[in-house]
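Hi F.,

I've been meaning to write this up properly since the lab meeting, where we talked about keeping a consistent format for the predictions we share between groups. The idea is simple: the sequence comes first, exactly as it goes in, then the structure tokens exactly as they come out, then a line or two of notes. No screenshots and no reformatting. I'm using this chain as the first example so we have something concrete to point to.
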Amino acid sequence: MLKKNLLILFFFFFAISVHALEINENTKFYNLLPHAKIFIDKSKSLKLQDILKIKNEFKKNDKKLLAYGYSPDFSVWIQFTLKNTTNKPLDKIIEYDNPLTTSIEFFSPSDAYVKKEGIYHIPKDKRTVNPIFKISLHPQESKTFYMRVSSHITTLIVKLNLYSHDSFYEKELKHQFILGLFFASILILGIYNLFIYFFTKDISYLYYVLYLVGVILHQMMYVGIANIYILNQECSIYLIEYAALLVAFPIFFLALFTKAFLDLKQYKLYNKILIIYLLVFPFLTAISIFTEEFSKYRNIFTLLLLIYLVVITVYATLKKNRQAYFILFGWFIILVAGTFMYISSLGIFDMHQYFPYIVEISFVSEAVVFSIALADRIKQLQIDKNDANNKLISQQKNEKERLEVKVTEKTIDLKHALDEKEMLLKELNHRVKNNMQTIVSLIRLQLDELDEYKDKEILTTTYNRINAMSHLHELLYYQTNISKVNAKDYFRLLTDEIQESYGQYIKLHLEITSDLELEQAIYCGLILNELTTNSFKHAFSLHSGNVYIKFSQTKTHYLLSVCDDGIGYDKSIASNSLGLVLVDNLVKSKLKGSINMFSNNGVEVIIKWEINHE
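Output, unedited:
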């Protein structure tokens, strides 16, 4: 009887060793599926103890990837055996290469070990994109493992990989780094286009930014990054259940972008059809998500919208729409990526095996193409504007004699307005250039005084000097009349900046009764910056006190007074101050004025210069 039992045990281990995948410490990677057996549980109710009774019904598999599509009504059981051929214990990692499967159960019957993973069972300490299972084998030990997977929301795609610890974490680090580069690239393009929208107010840029936001959200879920760093399990389940929204959101705004960017108003029929479809699209998407009858059509409405957008783009291309060429090329990239994703989900061809990041590369390429298209749009609009101006001038010359007097007068007014705008813009550009040269000179002067312990103070002074000029341009940007500067607003901006830099407990008192001429505003701002900064830095030993700023004008002169109730100053020290040297130079050489300083229970500086001085 003992011999019979030993013989049975021998044949049992022999059978296991025949089907076992032999591994050792040099085994870095294996695709496990071709070494596994598969059983389909159509009842979705079998437990491990039931499977162990019918393990002979498992069928050998020779595929590296198994894809069963959306919402399969069965569970897939996987059986594989591993054998440690060394005399040392082995630790390995089994990776389930799909982050979106809803339920994964891993069994090691010999150890009575069970671990659950997937969207419905996300570990709190999860830090890998895909679910992983750690296994250990004693020397010369063989173990049979089982896995049950099901996915009633997302596509059921099965791919198993065996890694050593080092090779897995090296691969995982590289994978997450590349994904990080992808999301950073899309985010940078989004921010770039958002700023262009703020400057141009062209709605197509805003639509494109929202499309990129949708791409980021979708891909974060698709590749599993969101489950690691952003969402908890409840949020992940919620978003997966309504994954159709993640698909519909970017496509909806892509449609709005295409409509605005291609100016579809010129194609009335196509534009009308698109508007109607966009109005009903959210309703159709909601029906496909929240009603069981239409759940199998949850992405069909998005697909129809994509197809129609391609048709519109092709039509616009045939009509010689310049922007359509860029969009058509972008569509080609998107369709290639979408086709590869769909083929992979069906298990027909695993493109990721040969081009691991084809989807991410396609999305970044498409985003770059669309961003180039948007940049070209600005250039084209400028060309169109110039062409329109040239046509207007030509029309004025050819029809001058037969135009009515009223039309002629309006044309002359328009020409005068354009000439004035051009002159003012040239003047503004000239002043900006001069201001930037002033900034460079100030920084160079300040660098000559740099001490290690004074770095912070010097940089703060330089910062306020630069702001003294930048605030002026900020005011001019919002003013319709740029020949005068609102001195009250200008001085308030300057002094608020200084107060924030040096002391919140020193009170400022402004008495401004006049505006400034543009020619003198920048010098006056620099002078006020230096004098007020000196008061804040040197006048108050207890960091509290008052600074009084007055600005007024007579018929012939401007008067600027900066006064504090501080401790006064030492004339020998003040005379060597770079700030006061700068003030003295600006007053005398730029404003052609006079400056007087008094120290009696504080410091008072009075500056006087002529109005309209050339």
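Notes:
The longest strand covers residues 75-84.
Residues 488 and 512 are 6 Å apart (CA to CA).

If this format works for you, I'll send the rest the same way.

G.
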